[in-house]
DNA sequence: CGCACAAAACGTAATCATTCTTATTTACAT
DNA sequence: ATGTAAATAAGAATGATTACGTTTTGTGCG
């Protein structure tokens, strides 16, 4: 997902393109991993004085809804990152820096037989730890 | 994990066995799935007038620390269930009733090769949806 | 049994992330 | 340029969780 694609997506859904929205996209574009609402707020405060929580959360949810961001929950806080739209996969997530690494295997194929009468809506497979950079630091 | 095993575990760690602690164990023994702190508080309020949040959360964390309970995060709320100590496995979790079904496959075996230099600390594999009972209801 | 002491529980306030509300401002199609 | 729906501000409200000073209660030991 690139910034241009994201803006295009917003337009397609009839949403406006504001400076703050572009800045939020730029933030996640640079981020390369999961970030919290708080981190985003801190970043936006540098450029915008008196940025409101509401603006941040509203746009995070909007971006999640239209598929620009994906989200996960960690330590009671929601974390967001640019959506990997291309194909289904999972992530290793660094506990220190939030950066992610793509994991190719998805266990769902092997699972179906266990859950005959069950209605599967969603699944989560994440690996947590330290990335090479944070490990050696 | 049985109530007796749990009490034994507490004693081994030098923790006292109080009426409330036994009631909490009984609650999870009967629960058969993930429950929230709120649900537990509601249950305890029936027997104990003026039960304190502190008591509930302190004991939930204690139980988690000594391995009586395991925990997962769902919709911004922590959920707890009796720990399945016997062997490593994962769960299907019903979004309606919180009941779980054991999933035999663990994807970690197939993953190691992707993460050479990474330090793996933990992982999570959960499937969400509706159990047969809630599906037909 | 009863005492002493540490652990547990109380009651409540504080905190943290997130959501809601109302009024005002802004982007963008016409 | 203007009207209008969307976006934002500012801060209060909410919901889950944690923290704190005080009081109560298990439990080991004489």
UniProtKB/TrEMBL annotation, chains A, B:
Its cellular-component GO annotations read:
cytoplasm
Return the InterPro entries for the record.
FUR, Fur_C, WH-like_DNA-bd_sf, WH_DNA-bd_sf
**One GO process term, biological-process aspect:** regulation of secondary metabolite biosynthetic process
**Gene Ontology MF terms:** DNA-binding transcription factor activity; transcription cis-regulatory region binding; zinc ion binding
* Residues bound to Fe cation: 88, 123
What cofactors does the UniProt entry give for this protein? Mn(2+); Fe(2+); Zn(2+)
Q: What is its main location?
A: cytoplasm
Q: Indicate where this protein resides in the cell.
A: Cytoplasm
Q: Where does Zn(2+) bind?
A: 94, 97, 131, 134
Cofactor annotation comment: Binds 1 Mn(2+) or Fe(2+) ion per subunit.
Pfam families in the cross-refs: FUR
- Keywords recorded for this protein, A-Z: Cytoplasm, DNA-binding, Iron, Metal-binding, Repressor, Transcription, Transcription regulation, Zinc
Q: Which family does it belong to?
A: Belongs to the Fur family.
Q: What is this protein called?
A: Transcriptional repressor
Species name = Oceanobacillus jordanicus
């Amino acid at each position: 997902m690139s910034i241009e694609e994201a803006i295009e997506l917003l337009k397609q859904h009839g949403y406006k393109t504001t400076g703050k929205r572009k800045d939020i996209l730029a933030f996640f574009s640079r981020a390369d991993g999961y970030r919290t609402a708080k981190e985003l707020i801190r970043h936006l405060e540098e450029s915008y004085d008196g940025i409101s929580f509401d603006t941040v959360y509203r746009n995070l949810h909007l971006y999640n809804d239209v598929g620009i961001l994906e989200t996960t929950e960690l330590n009671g806080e929601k974390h967001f990152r640019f959506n990997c739209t291309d194909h289904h996969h999972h992530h290793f997530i660094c506990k220190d820096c939030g950066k992610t690494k793509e994991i190719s295997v998805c266990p769902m194929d092997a699972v179906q037989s266990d859950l005959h009468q069950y209605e599967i809506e969603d699944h989560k497979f994440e690996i947590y730890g330290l990335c090479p950079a944070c490990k050696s630091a």
